[in-house]
Amino acid sequence: xxxxxxxxxxxxxxxxxxxxxxxxxxxxxxxxxxxxxxxxxxxxxxxxxxxxxxxxxxxxxxxxxxxxxxxxxxxxxxxxxxxxxxxxxxxxxxxxxxxxxxxxxxxxxxxxxxxxxxxxxxxxxxxxxxxxxxxxxxxxxxxxxxxxxxxxxxxxxxxxxxxxxxxxxxxxxxxxxxxxxxxxxxxxxxxxxxxxxxxxxxxxxxxxxx
Length: 210
Description:
alpha+beta; Cyclic Phosphodiesterase, Chain: A; five-stranded antiparallel β-sheet; globular
């Protein structure tokens, strides 16, 4: 099955962010596929296809990695793109806050995949981690300079925040959701530790947007 580990966006934060970016699709070029606020999430590790018999071991390793860490505080940052803004492939909104903890957790989530026998570029030990929520995708490069300029001019985008109390292991079934999108099903909820652990060096001194 196709799996990924993630931190979900609370409904109230998704609703507030959705209201802020609501005018952007009308300013964007045709052909962008906009994601649903119900599916917004911060991907920690993407596992692609996982054999059924390896899922329990992966879940145990992920649960252990999450439970060793304090609940991170996250905040919405500015918009950005993958690919140059003249020919972008993805429009995203960045996340800020406890970034050192997130990077460490993402590395552990990728390591959990490797330890159950998975491989691929998505699980590379030194793969760059850029915390974000995907807002839209383009089949071919799209000119998003106008969208980014409009978003920068709109108040309220940075500053939306929350404390994540859990990570999730999610099954993704391509083409099975509304409009041909992927259908996401939570297989396991993995709680963070509220008290942390001895010697924890990942406590952020900055809990809001930078």
